[in-house]
């Protein structure tokens, strides 16, 4: 009875031992077998120009990106069928190659690009093998707008962008080296970068000054003195010309002012003459009435006439009218004197 119980237990132990040995042999064979070679070609800054020829599909990824890890198996399957589809498949690690991510201006991960004879297009579909296969077989890439002009990865603008991204990547690696490997605090690392930036700016300014001094050739001392001596007489001549011009302007302004004053005086005199002529015209009837009254009155004695004449002459000499007014007054006086003279002989 006891032997019958020991028989199944011994068989179970033997079976477990056989399975363990077989599993160990399987693991040993898998470890000894070389890993399957990936058909996805890693692209770097040194060999990225290969995509300028033929047809390519590129994948930009990061090791820490979960979405990128989910599409790894699909991308490997797509690469295995690359010979059938007559297409090359590559991948770019943005951590190791920040310059290429800047050249293609990658802002999201994962990012896929199609290249056909140097013309690039962005593939925005899912990273699934069936969709990728249909994108190539049905040539859906022809309906996508290509990256041309300054957006093209081969343009000069994107080359500059690649340089900026590569510099930022190197600074990031250096910062990690300070903080992780050496254990330097983060603020110390930032302070080091600030000081380095200031020193680099001063150095570049010094280089520019040296370059400008090398290209600038100063004149010899004798030539410079001679040129200064030649310039001084020219400056004096120019100043004299400017003074002459200013004097001429002042003279012309003075003459214009004088002419304007003379014109104003002439206008005033003309207005005075017109007013005196109007007064004479108004006084004309009064003078005729006086002459009639003189004709009716008896003739005064001769001495009275002489006194009146001298008084009129004195009034004329004190009044001193303007030339046009004096002519009118003189005419009226001559008329009176001729009338008195006619009356004298008749008496």
TrEMBL record:
Give the record's GO CC terms: endoplasmic reticulum membrane
Please give the residue ranges the record annotates as the region Disordered: 243-347
Q: Gene3D superfamilies under this entry?
A: Glutaredoxin
Report the residue ranges that make up the Thioredoxin domain in this protein.
53-136
Q: What keywords are annotated for this sequence in UniProt?
A: Disulfide bond, Electron transport, Endoplasmic reticulum, Membrane, Phosphoprotein, Redox-active center, Signal, Transmembrane, Transmembrane helix, Transport
Q: Where in the cell is it found?
A: Endoplasmic reticulum membrane
Q: What molecular function terms (GO) are annotated for this protein?
A: disulfide oxidoreductase activity
**What is the gene name?**
TMX4
Comp. bias intervals (Acidic residues): 243-284
Residue ranges annotated as transmembrane are 190-211
Stated name of the protein: Thioredoxin related transmembrane protein 4
């Amino acid at each position: 009875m006891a032997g019958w119980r020991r028989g199944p237990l011994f068989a179970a132990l033997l079976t477990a031992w056989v399975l363990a040995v077989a599993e160990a042999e399987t693991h040993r064979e898998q470890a000894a077998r070389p890993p399957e070679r990936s058909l996805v070609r890693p692209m770097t800054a040194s060999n990225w120009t290969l995509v300028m020829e033929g047809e390519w599909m590129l994948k930009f990824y990061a090791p820490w990106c979960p979405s990128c890890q989910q599409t790894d198996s699909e991308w490997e399957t797509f690469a295995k069928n690359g010979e059938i589809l007559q297409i090359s498949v590559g991948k770019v690690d943005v951590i190791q190659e920040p310059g290429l991510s800047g050249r293609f201006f990658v802002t999201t991960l994962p990012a896929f690009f199609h290249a056909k004879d140097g013309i690039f297009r962005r593939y925005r579909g899912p990273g699934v093998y069936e969709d990728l296969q249909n994108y190539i077989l049905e040539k859906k890439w022809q309906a996508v707008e290509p990256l041309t002009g300054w957006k093209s990865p081969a343009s000069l603008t994107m080359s500059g962008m690649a340089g900026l991204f590569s510099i930022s990547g190197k600074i990031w690696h250096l910062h990690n080296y300070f903080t992780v490997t050496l254990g330097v605090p983060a603020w110390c690392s930032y302070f080091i970068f600030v000081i380095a930036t200031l020193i680099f700016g001063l150095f570049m300014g010094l280089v520019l000054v040296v370059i400008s001094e090398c290209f600038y050739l100063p004149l010899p001392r004798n030539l410079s003195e001679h040129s200064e001596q030649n310039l001084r007489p020219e400056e004096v001549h120019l100043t004299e010309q400017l003074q002459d011009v200013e004097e001429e302007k002042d003279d012309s302004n003075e003459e214009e002012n004088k002419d304007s004053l003379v014109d104003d005086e002439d206008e005033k005199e003309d207005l005075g003459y017109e007013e005196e002529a109007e007064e004479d015209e108004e006084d004309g009837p009064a003078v005729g009435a006086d002459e009639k009254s003189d004709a009716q009155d008896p003739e005064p004695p001769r001495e009275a006439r002489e006194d009146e004449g001298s008084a009129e002459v004195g009034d004329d000499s004190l009044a001193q009218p303007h030339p046009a007014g004096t002519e009118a007054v003189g005419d009226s006086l001559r008329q009176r004197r001729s009338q008195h003279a006619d009356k004298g002989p008749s008496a």
